[in-house]
């Protein structure tokens, strides 16, 4: 209902009376008033005059009422330890496919390989729950799917040359702006659920982390719309799910790759590999040609673009 009221107020040139709102939405004026009070408590500035209500400003928060298509599947938190953990808890209590946990900041955001993920206010942090009917062998493709979804969104909305660094970082001008962490619950031959965590350095300064990382605001020189980016990435992810077992996804990843066809170094659990990245296989593993011409495959690890 709050989403419907907001949409009405946003699309009206002047004030809208409680009576009109109530009639249009099929609820009483008193109920409208209660929702208005609630919206104000969430940070919306809504003017009221004898002629009616007018939306004066909206908070820069990823609240459920901003994304009516996600409805009750969106769980918004101002501050949380990690959206990954909350998503897992929700799964344990029966959360369905498409559930999204989003936080304005995280106290213990985590990255790949047990690292910390810097998660101050102004970033975009969310975890999407999927229950794809695929074999666990396809799971690495979820990372690819997510990084493709983010890169496509940033290219379309911000006009930037977003590229992918294997296995799943999104870079702009060679600097990391987004990281992806996918976790999975599976039996031997079937995936039960996947949680895809996306962290985007949006509207805060990250200069103290050096030149390998950047925020969208610093790169663009102005604030970006977190709402538009979040909405687009989630939609793109839900849409791309059907491509998980198709070759198209690999082709999209390759087309956006900053890693392929360049000299790289990879630190894998089994040691270091250096050489030219020549391809990725159907499971997302990177194929590297070493100096002596031999081909090596990296399934996991940290990739460096010297
Ligand atoms: C990486 O590049 O190391 C992956 C970073 C993933 C960060 C996101 S932020 C939302 C979700 N919650 C977390 O604790 N981590 C992921």
**Poorly predicted tracts of residues:** none
**Any idea what the radius of gyration is?**
22 Å
CATH class of the largest domain: Alpha Beta
**Second CATH tier, the architecture of the largest domain:** 2-Layer Sandwich
Overall average residue pLDDT: 92
Any idea what the shape is?
elongated
Q: Superfamily at the CATH H level of the largest domain?
A: Bira Bifunctional Protein, Domain 2
Content of β-strand? 25-35%
Number of DSSP helices?
8
Q: Strands, helices and their partners?
A:
Elements: H1 2-10, H2 18-25, H3 29-41, E1 45-49, E2 52-57, E3 74-80, H4 83-92, E4 100-106, E5 124-130, H5 140-158, E6 162-165, E7 169-172, E8 175-186, E9 191-200, H6 216-220, H7 226-240, H8 247-256, E10 263-268, E11 271-280, E12 286-289, E13 295-298, E14 302-304
Parallel strand pairs: 3-4
Antiparallel strand pairs: 1-2, 4-5, 5-9, 6-7, 7-8, 8-9, 10-11, 10-14, 11-12, 12-13
The structure holds biotin.
The site of biotin has 20 residues, from helix 4, strand 5, strand 8 and strand 9.
């Amino acid at each position: 209902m709050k989403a419907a009221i907001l949409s009405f107020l946003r699309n009206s040139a002047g004030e809208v009376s409680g009576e009109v709102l109530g009639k249009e939405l099929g609820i009483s004026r008193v109920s409208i008033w209660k929702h208005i009070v609630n919206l104000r408590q969430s940070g919306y500035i809504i003017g009221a005059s004898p002629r009616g209500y007018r939306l004066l400003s909206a908070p820069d928060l990823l609240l459920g009422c901003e994304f009516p298509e996600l409805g009750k599947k969106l769980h918004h938190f101002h501050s949380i330890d990690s959206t990954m953990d909350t998503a897992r808890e929700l799964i344990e209590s029966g959360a369905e496919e498409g559930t999204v946990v989003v936080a304005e900041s995280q106290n213990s955001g985590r990255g790949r390989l047990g690292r910390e993920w810097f998660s101050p206010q102004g970033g975009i942090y969310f975890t999407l729950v999927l229950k794809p009917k695929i074999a666990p062998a396809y799971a690495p493709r979820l990372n690819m799917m997510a990084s493709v979804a983010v890169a496509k969104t940033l290219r379309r909305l911000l006009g930037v040359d977003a590229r992918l660094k294997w296995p799943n970082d999104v870079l702009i001008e060679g600097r990391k702006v987004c990281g992806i962490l996918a976790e999975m619950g599976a039996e031997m031959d079937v995936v039960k659920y996947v949680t895809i965590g996306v962290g985007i350095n949006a509207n805060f300064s990250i200069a103290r982390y050096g030149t390998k990382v950047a925020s969208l605001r610093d790169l663009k020189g102005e604030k970006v719309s977190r709402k538009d980016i979040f909405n687009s990435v989630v939609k793109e992810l839900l849409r791309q799910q059907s491509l998980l077992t198709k070759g198209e996804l690999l082709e999209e990843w390759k087309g956006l790759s900053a890693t392929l066809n360049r000299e790289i170094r990879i630190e894998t659990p089994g040691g270091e590999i250096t050489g030219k990245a020549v391809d990725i296989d159907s499971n997302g593993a990177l194929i590297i040609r070493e100096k002596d011409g031999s081909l090596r495959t990296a399934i996991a690890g940290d990739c460096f673009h010297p």
